[in-house]
Write a structure and sequence with these properties.
about 240 residues, alpha/beta, 5-stranded antiparallel sheet, 5-stranded parallel sheet, Rossmann fold, elongated, 8 helices, 15 strands, 2 domains, OB fold (Dihydrolipoamide Acetyltransferase, E2P)
Length: about 240
Amino acid sequence: MPTAILAEDEPLLLAQLKETLASAWPELKIVGEAATGIAAMRMIDDLAPDIALLDIRMPDASGLEVARHAAGRCHIVFITAYDNYAIQAFEQGAVDYVLKPVEAARFMATVTRLKSRLQSPPADLRNLVSQLSARGEGRLRWIQASVGNTIKFITVEEVFYFQSDTKYTRVVSDQGEALIRKSLKELSDELDPEHFWQVHRGTVINMNRISAVQRDGDGGMTVLLKGCPDKLIVSQTYQARFRQM
């Protein structure tokens, strides 16, 4: 019976992965679940699984670092919201990937590939991982937000703006509002800077959603967004970019 570990720090998504995997491959035995990269490395050392399904972004150590640690010891599947990986690297055949949100049909294709690869030794992915690390992780495509017992997957195109909210970041989109457990600074580093601009210390907006920029007589500036009633203040620090438009 083949064995696997799952490394994913979002509990609801982890539960979804387990359910999808159990349906697609009931013979596969999940021997460990990790919420951090370091925990995943320890499980690979202690449990010697045949397969490791690794979220790219995890606390402590990334999925790439875990894959480097596991090189040649188990088959790797990356779980990612970053299409740059999928397009430029994962199709090389030595590794598979699952894009968030997880789709059952795509997952079945991954299972078919894994069953075939189990007949051969795991690939040594150290060179590939080094190349991927050097390229960077691409730009964020999806925002994964927990709302009660539901995981919302919000494309970045749907987002009007992000705003700091104590320990969380508020996401305002076509789907309404949600909170994510990530700071605005962390989020800004993952977003495409050509399309997402900071307009205030606590606010980042989707430039594709701007309908107008209003100026008042006191030197203030306000951004209006298409399809969103909120008016967002642009602080003095960030007004220069708008004056050049």
